[in-house]
Design brief:
InterPro entries: ClpP/crotonase-like_dom_sf, Enoyl-CoA_hydra/iso
Distance between the termini: 53 Å
Strand order of the largest sheet: 1-2-3-4-6-9
Radius of gyration: 20 Å
Pfam families: ECH_1
Organism: Streptomyces cellulosae
CATH superfamily of the largest domain: 2-enoyl-CoA Hydratase, Chain A, domain 1
Helix content: 40-55%
Protein name: Enoyl-CoA hydratase/isomerase family protein
Order of helices and strands: EEHEHHEEHEEHHEHEHHHHHHHEE
CATH class of the largest domain: Alpha Beta
Strand content: 5-15%
Length: 337
Amino acid sequence: MRGSEPRFRPAWSPTPERSPTPDRSPAPAWCPGTRPCCRTPVGSSGSLRELRTLLTRLADDSTVRVIVFSSADPEFFPAHVDMRIGENMDVLQELAASAPADVNVFQAVGELIRHQPQVTIVKLAGKARGGGAEFVAAADMAFAATETAGIGQIEALMGIVPGGGGTQYLRNRVGRNRALEVVLTADLFDAGTAASYGWINRALPADELDAYVDRVARNIAALPDGVIEAAKRSLPADDFQEGLLRENDAWASQFDVPAAQKLISRGLRNGAQTPAGERDLEGLMRGVARRLPDVHPHTEAPGPVARRASGRSGAALGRRCGTPFRRRARVPRVPTG
């Protein structure tokens, strides 16, 4: 668009009355997450479907040049994948059937974000863990509030590893040594540290975050025709196909191990996925592990599920609820407490 300032248009909301306006001028699109911390845009099976639908629709909308993702909850961005997501197997099976053959349903979302034709920006004011952190790393840019934002891969404290692209996106952004630090410590990193590692673009004072992201989005959206496309063509998203396959195999091999089931189930009983529990989820899960000494490998003999998993190929692990998913498009069985 030339000669006038592009306007912001809300691109998506869970409520149908908040739909795009008739104005078709090139603009940024704001995509606020309006669900509570435990039902975030990447957290539940329904939200996964909504997000994939949104990204697919926006990819074909030439009037949207920039997509800004933020959260209506100041404490939490996507907190992490819903720990009870396995209760909605019908939706997960539907998503798996439509996912590309070599990614699982969670990786499919990250790959959609990474290959979106628009510029994708995350505005992070609160905490982003697990799948939420993977979402942040998949975006083209991320800016966070110094005083309030935090980001981390919590999965190790649940007995698993990141399975939605996090290992590959992290290594690409921060290097292997720091990626291992993030994954294996499972700590929540402050915005300043995340910026110094290269995990996010920049940490800003909380009272400057909105204005800064607003300015960046507007300036990019106002660029001459073709500039964004040319820039993204000359700086393409890296190909992580083989790495995503390795990640998925590692993730799937851990999910059925009894230790992971115990940790997730007991974490839910102790307050995970409640606002109070999510404020220090790392502390909560470490406390759960201390009270479950049998989750450690040297004290636990593999259960029947673990033995069965260890003797199967990655493709065989893709069968759930009697339905063979596409190769590597897998959904784990998640304990419900």
